[in-house]
Structures are given as C-alpha cells and as structure tokens.
Design brief:
The chain has 479 residues and is mostly helical. It has helices at 3-22, 27-43, 58-64, 72-87, 90-94, 97-114, 118-129, 134-151, 154-172, 176-191, 199-208, 212-238, 246-253, 264-283, 291-305, 310-315, 319-337, 340-347, 356-374, 376-392, 403-420, 429-440, 447-476.
C-alpha cells in the first residue's frame, strides 16, 4: 500500500470514529459511509491488486521448507482455503457474519418473548416481592436486569425493564433516575458475564476463538462478586434516602403482574426455545458449532412453534445495529489492510520488555477509558486486531507460545471494554437507550449527570477487574 492510501485509510478511520462519538449524525450512516470509502479505495478499488512482491508467496515458502513434502497435504488444504477466500465477495471477506447472525438470531428470539409480557411480569414481581421498599425494589430490579442481560441482548433488556421502572417509581413517588441508572450499570455488568451478553464479548470471542462455556467459566464468577459489591454499595448509598410511607407501598402491592402476560402459550413455547438455545451455547464448543448457528437455530425454532406474525417479528429486528456492526467491520479491515493497525501495534512494542501482567493491566485501563469515551462496541471492533497482532508477534517472547497468558489478555480486555462502557452516556448502547426512554417520559439525563453515576461505578469495577486478573496471573500462569 502506498503512503497516500495509508493516510486516506487513517483519515477515514479516525473520521468515522470521531463522527460516531460526537453523535452529530446517525452512527449507522457514519459507519456505512466509512465502510464504502474503504471499499471503493482500499478493499475493492484499484489498490486491492497491489501486492508486495518482495515477500515470498506461501508456495515458495513451502517449497523451501525441509518439512514441505511431509506436510504437503496440509499445505494444499491451506492454499485451497486461501483461494476460496479470494473468490468470496467483499462483504463475505470483511464482515464477521458469525457476530452478525448471532445478534440477529438473539434479537428475533428476544422479540418473540418480549411480546408475551414476561419481562414486564418479572419487573412487577420484583417490585411486589420487595413489599414496596424502594431500596429493595432497586436491588431486585438490578439483579433481574443483570441476569437477563447475561443471556439476552442488554439493550432489549433495558428497553423492557425501564418503562416498568418508571411506573414503579411513580407509584412510590421517588426520583426514577437512580433506578434507571442502577439498572443501566447492571445491564453492562451482567452482560460482561457471557459470550452473548454484550456485543464486545461477541467480537472478542469470534476473533480469539473463545466459546460460550469459556466466557461463562472465566468471567461469570467474578461478575457475580461485582454485582454483590454493587448491590451493597447501592444499599449503603440509597438505603436511608428513599423512605416512603405505608400508603405508597400499598400502591405497589396493588399492581397485577399477571395482567402483564399477554400470551401464555407463546411465553411457554418461547421460554422453552430460549432454554434450549442457552444449552446450545453451552455445548457449541464441544459440538463444533458456531454461535451464529445456535442463535439462528433457536430463532428458527421459535418462528416454527410460536403463533406469531413472522413479517412483524422480522421488522422488529434492530437492523440499524446490525448494519452499524457491518460498517465497523469493513472500516477496521480497510485500516488493517492499509497498515494502520500495524502502526497501532507498534505502540504496544515498547511493552515487550515489561512484565506481562503489567502489559495486560495497562491494556485494560487504556481500553476501559477509551471504550467509555468512544463507545465500547466501536472501540472493541478496532482493538481486537491490534491485540491479536501484538500477541502473535514473533519477538513477543513472554506471550508467544503461552496460551494461558494470551487468554488472560483477552479476559482482561473483555472485562475492561464491557465495564468501561458504564463510564459515559455514549460508552454503551444500553446507556443511550435508557436516556432515550427517560426523555420520552419527560426526564432528562444529561451527559454530566450520567458521569456522576457512571465514573465511580466504572473506576470501582475496573479496580476489581484488575485485582481479579492479578490474582489469576499468580495462581495460574507459569512464566
């Protein structure tokens, strides 16, 4: 690639991310505009045919290798796969469709379940179980939101829980903002626990080859601890600030959770499919199935057995989010082919003489802060290739050949970007959704007010995540 193309890709890459962060234009429009510029000039344009002939081809490398004949069959398979890749169309080459179809499948499945009223039932049940106590209601809603967000799309979870929260807050005559903020934070915390809980985890899992069970085993125990500490902090902070009289508590007990259920049959069928799908995620690594196959399989089964309007359900899929992801993947791939990601990778080169634990912690804190400022999905889409190149570098002695250390880097990154998303109102999609729901009800959550809630939670959770990574390093890693 020429220096002109490098600078073109650099301008498009940073321009796209800055435009997304400023929110002056719709993020999907910005991502697609950046993607098309990368396509026309870098990925599929005249420069696409530029090849560095100073480097030997894979065939030449094999022919020069002493082991070439012994591994002839394996090499032939590699070359055949490479030729197949070259014949793919542009979108197939540069978009991670495993992430796209996993999201689409889960969106469809959650939309079918949401139409039954089951999530509203859970929220009202939590409020009644607390006997109208505001702080107990808050903690139960926080736990319900976190658990749902671990297995469903956290944006959808917030969309479904927030309106009921506004109703409960109105009945108790308390400020709804602390409730909404607490639920938003818990959705991002809970989503960190699994592969499908938060889009950054999907991106990391797809890139690093980490499956659902690995995320569940490595991250969920820690996230449970974080949630417990978070709930204790909420109780200590709000416990004595939200006292209400008996009359207001009685209003909550009068709410009918059963009235929220609008379709019992589909709730049972959809619930059964969701359980089967989650089991499928737990087993997909052992069965050698991609997460997208499991998600789309569950969505298809739900369409078959649930009595629904299929066209209506397909219209409810968040197509804007899916196209946003596709645009980001292409922008990042264009930057990578132009050499920009290699330059980013060099920024980590100075850490090669450091202790690997220090490198991981620095990556975590930089990533957590950057995710809060730029949006954790956008940042993760860009950073995974940089981290991947750093871990694969031949002169990176500490990480080369140490699978446990490499995985610890990915776990640290996953925690950093997901928990860092709580930092600002643009840090995660769930944050923006909560602000949107509140605004429709006449409640304004400003950027500054969000910082007041988000920064302490983010800093606290990143400190806990750092302690967790340090503990795992000294217990498990052999250097």
């Amino acid at each position: 690639m020429s220096v002109y193309l490098f600078w073109f890709a650099t301008i498009v890459f940073f321009g796209t991310y800055i435009a997304i962060a400023t929110e002056k234009f719709h993020k999907t429009t910005v991502a697609l505009a950046g993607a098309m510029m990368m396509f026309f000039v870098i990925l599929e344009g005249p420069s696409h045919s530029e090849i560095d002939h100073s480097k030997p081809t894979i065939t030449e490398v094999i022919s020069q290798s002493v082991m070439g004949k012994e591994y002839h069959n394996q090499v032939s398979n590699v070359i055949e796969k490479a030729e197949t890749y070259d014949r793919l169309n542009g979108f197939s080459r540069y978009v991670d469709f495993d992430v796209i179809f996993t999201l689409a499948g889960m969106m469809l499945l959650v939309n079918i379940l949401s139409g039954t009223g089951v999530f509203q039932y859970i929220a009202i049940k939590c409020a009644k179980y607390s006997r109208g106590s505001p702080i107990r209601t808050m903690i139960l809603l926080v736990l319900a939101t976190a658990i749902l967000s671990a297995f469903l799309d956290n944006v959808t979870t917030v969309l479904l829980i927030a309106p009921v929260t506004l109703l409960v807050a109105a009945e108790l005559d308390v400020n709804p903002i602390p409730f909404l903020m607490a639920e938003t934070m818990s959705s991002n915390i809970g989503g960190s626990a699994t592969l499908i809980g938060d889009p950054p985890n999907l991106i990391i899992g797809s890139y690093a080859g980490l499956n659902f069970s690995q995320f569940l085993i490595n991250l969920s125990p820690f996230i449970i601890i974080v949630l417990i500490i978070y709930c204790i902090a909420l109780y200590l902070h709000y416990g004595k600030k939200m006292e209400v009289n008996v009359e207001k508590r009685a209003r909550i007990m009068e709410l009918d959770e059963n009235a929220a259920i609008t379709d019992v049959d589909n709730m049972r069928r959809g619930g059964a499919v969701m359980i089967i799908t989650i089991i499928g995620f737990l087993l997909h690594g052992a069965l050698h199935l991609q997460p997208s196959v499991v998600a789309m399989g569950g969505a298809t089964l739900a369409l078959v057995i649930c009595k629904i309007d299929v066209d209506h359900q397909l219209e409810k899929i968040e197509w804007s989010t899916l196209f946003f992801f596709m645009g980001l993947f292409i922008v990042v791939n264009g930057a990578q082919q132009a050499g920009l990601m290699d330059e980013f990778g060099k920024l980590l080169a100075f850490t090669k003489s450091w202790h690997p634990l220090l490198t991981i912690l620095v990556v975590m804190w930089v990533s957590g802060i950057a995710a809060a400022v730029t949006n954790n999905v956008s940042f993760t889409a860009a950073i995974v290739s940089v981290i991947g190149a750093f871990l694969a570098a031949q002169d990176n002695i500490m990480f080369t050949g140490n699978t446990d250390l490499k995985e610890l880097m990915w776990w640290g990154l996953a925690l950093a970007v997901c928990l860092g998303g709580n930092g600002t109102i643009v840090g995660a999609a769930a944050n923006l959704v909560t602000a949107g729901v509140a605004e429709k009800s006449g409640i304004k959550i400003t950027f500054k007010e969000f910082l007041r809630y988000g920064v302490p939670v983010t800093l606290g959770s990143l400190v806990l995540a750092s302690i967790y990574i340090v503990a795992r390093f000294y217990v498990e890693i052999k250097i």
